User: What shape does this take?
Amino acid sequence: MNNRYKGHFLFALTIAIVFASCNVRKNYETPEVNTQGLYRDQISADTNTIADLPWKQVFADVQLQSLIDEGIKQNLDLQIAYTRIQQSEAYLKQSRAAFFPSLSGTASATINKLSDAQGGNFINNTRIYQAGLSSSWEADLWGRLGSTRRASLATLLQSEAYKNAVQTGLIANIANNYYLLLALDQQLAITEKTVQNWISTVETMRTLKDAARVTGAAVVQSEANRYAAEVTIPDLKQRIRETENTLSTLLGRAPGPISRGNLDQQNTLSALPTGIPAQLLSKRPDVQQAEYNYRYFFENTNAARSYFYPSLNITASGGLSNIDLKNYFSPGSVFASVVGSLTQPIFNKRLNKTRLEVARAQQQEALFAFQKSLLTAGQEVSNAMWSYRTSLDKNASREKQIASLQKSIEYTEELLRYGSANYVEVISAQQNYLSAQLNRVNDRLQQLQSVVSLYRSLGGGWQQ
Assistant: This one.
């Protein structure tokens, strides 16, 4: 075959391989997902969302800001996430290096002593000194190395998204526990004040008993209610201590006290725009993580498909070899070899087919996980919005309830002094008043924590 025909043949072979490789490897495209109606009972085309706000703008409390900043710097889960990024970066560099030939050096000295039966009378001693280089290179004909590199890139992006998800969750956990701590502080203050009021009530009942206005049962019952309120104080203090310890762990420090403000000083955003559900694809780190996981298995499927096609490997070696060190660097010591091999799988005990079937199943599983992550995100946004609205709805009624109970206590105490009411009415009014005060604190806590949940569920906190 003359050089002209050889050139045409090689050109045609190259074109054939390129077209074949295009059929083997498929280009990645973001899977189509339906985001319609992810936010229940909410239809809006406005793309403004609180997820775009810096967390310092969402959480205006200076002491809370200091805690969040400390947590971002020291939280151990976040530090672990950074190490995962470093691992993924190393694997990506390795996948890029796979396109280059390998190179290794060897040096050896061999001394052979043969027995007489092996020809020792003719070759008594043989010494061979050898040094050389060997190289191997695989041509990426079907895109397997490229798919592996893209899979490694998807892993890196996934680890970065995981870090962002950890940071978003960390900010939310710190804020939620901080608000819980403020609520517990206020409930403790209310309960301690109530105990003091009960002590006054007991003294009043004793005075009225001496005046024959009430019986001994009224005194005993008022004492019992005083102790019922008092017994809740140790539990509140324990919860405060446990919440402080939880916050300390989130901050990466040993358990200890937490500097904090007051619940009444906390302000929430005047508006809580959620944007459109499709924005979750770019703002929710865990949704991004799920998509990168799907992308990883998509490229794994590409790589698995390439195993059905022949592989081209080129190996080369060369160096110096001689039995005499004196003539080691002479031209006669030089050796070299180049080998090109084309290997086509024929029967491999079903390994390649199993690899492809598993890769396809894992890709489908990752797609379902991605779709589920979107549904979960929509659920969390919907729940947070409804929780916030519920807390606002309860505010007006709760304030009216507390105002009525305050008047009820005043009226019943006044009537009791003149014998127009019994002690049961007074005690019942005071019990209801305490319960309403504690519930008002819970309502406020629900409002604050629902804003935190909405901010996290929309994907806020990691972009700043």
User: Anything to note?
Assistant: Strands lie at 102-113, 125-139, 311-322, 334-343. The chain has eleven helices and four strands. Residues 8-13 have pLDDT under 50 and may be disordered.
